[in-house]
Amino acid sequence: MRAFIRSFALSLAGLGAALAAQALELAKYPQVFVAPQGVEVVLAPSADGKQALVRVSGINDPIDQVVFLANLEQQGAAREIYSTRIDGRDYGLLQKQRHPYRGSEQYVAYLPGKRDGLVLAFHEDKSKAFKLAELQASYERQQKQGVQEKLARFDRNKRLAGAQADLDKADQDATAACGTPVKTAVDWATIDDEKLQALSIGSFCGVVASELESMCRNTPAFKATAAGLGQVQCRFAPQLKIRVEGQQVVFSTEKDAPNQNDFVRQFLRNQ
């Protein structure tokens, strides 16, 4: 029953977005921005300035060439965010940022899976030649195919795979620095969808491996101690805790844990 209700709600959302797009009156002049390595971003604001069609091209990601209907959110006087629904959450895909002192402004794209924003440069010739009708037609065609609706859903398996890749990288770095196998296992049952969407699980649960790597690299004598601390079990719990049980480090963290790195570093120093 829940699955039916969720599917029905998503269908209604998709229908509503499609109707909104058909009724959307776009401003006369779109803007085309470019970035290194062939990245291109199209911004076509609505006539009332409250929404826009946004398309990113030239990236190795499922959102490539997809036209999104984005809402404009004003954050103070220095920032405007074009936000759309991606992977179960509102995502600020494109931002207009103003320098508080110089008065200059720049557009920055924030791409899925990338920590840093991509600074964009306005391309006058492409902007003048751009065809708004083709962009709107692409949006409506993709809406009928369910492209945006699929990208809007939260994909837990995809997020788990990304978090696991981050953990594996931290383990590999620690293994190389310490000269002993380091492996972090996560109790995924303690991590619900909300935490998985909002938090970097790779950072939270990878902190023990990261601190092992740092201490082995900076204090070679610590490698002998690290040999008995390479198996790590991580879970989310109401309180930040860490202990050794047998041959395993049992680490409990929580989303508001303060100074997690310092806490783990002090624990390792005392071993």
Helical segment count = 10
For the largest sheet, list the strands in their spatial order. 1-2-3-4-5-6-7-8
Dominant shape: elongated
Q: What is the β-strand count?
A: 12
Which structural class matches the secondary elements?
A: alpha+beta
Describe what you observe in this structure.
The chain is of the alpha+beta class and 271 residues long. It has two domains: 2-152, no CATH class; 156-269, no CATH class. The protein is built from ten helices and twelve strands. The longest helix is centred in the middle third of the chain and has 23 residues, at 156-178. The radius of gyration is 23 Å and the shape is elongated.
Strand and helix map with partners:
Blueprint: H1 2-23, E1 31-35, E2 39-45, E3 51-57, E4 67-75, E5 79-86, E6 89-98, E7 105-109, E8 118-122, H2 124-129, H3 132-145, H4 147-152, H5 156-178, E9 183-186, H6 193-198, H7 201-205, H8 207-218, H9 223-226, E10 231-236, E11 241-245, E12 248-253, H10 260-269
Quick overview of this protein structure:
This protein is of the alpha+beta class and 271 residues long.
What are the defining features of this structure?
271 residues, 2 domains, alpha+beta, disordered N terminus, 4-stranded mixed β-sheet
